[in-house]
């Protein structure tokens, strides 16, 4: 049976997703490498290659849980998935991930519950996993997806650890719920507003009417609960939209 999701756990899950969003941004900006941060993140951090359908990176925590070295996990190739995850659940999980990947939205975080075990002698454990697309080549093509898995029963403790590790990113934690409400088009318009584009400029660039642009602006301000452009610019900069 899947863990029961209380409102408190939902809040913790949202916080974990926000912190994972921050990790992705800091990696993207080159503030540190995956190897630098991987073994210090509270949880199991891994990267999968979408081209070869294989595991290309796993931090120490994940290796310990699966009882395999990074090299052994890489050598498994696509059989990595059938070895550690229930076969009957893989189709459902893959459908959700494929839909997320198809959107090609690097600013989004996709989360789900999954069961994992190192071998048939152990019971499956539930993990809350968050995923984010990342570029594996200099051309900017999306061919990697990064996952952060946290044991569901440990969400309380790890949520507190994540808060301590990323205290400086409190604004993102507090506003991630609002960010998640935005549509792709609204994010695009926020970016253009932050770049000091006028309503007419946005209308011309996106091939939509000025009336539609103004409606989007109104919806954005309502969703973000802000009243001025300076607040919107801060929001855009914090969430790496500009």
Give the SSE order as H and E letters. Answer: HHEEHHHHEEEHHHHHH
- Count every helix, treating DSSP H or I runs of 4 or more residues as helices: 12
CATH architecture of the largest domain: 2-Layer Sandwich
Q: Under the CATH scheme, which class of the largest domain?
A: Alpha Beta
CATH superfamily of the largest domain: PAS domain
Structural class: alpha+beta
Shape: elongated
Got a strand count?
5
Global mean pLDDT: 82
Radius of gyration: 19 Å
| Strand order within the widest beta sheet | 2-1-5-4-3
What share of residues are in beta strands?
A: 15-25%
Which stretches are poorly predicted, pLDDT < 50 over at least 5 residues?
1-5
**Distance N to C terminus:** 42 Å
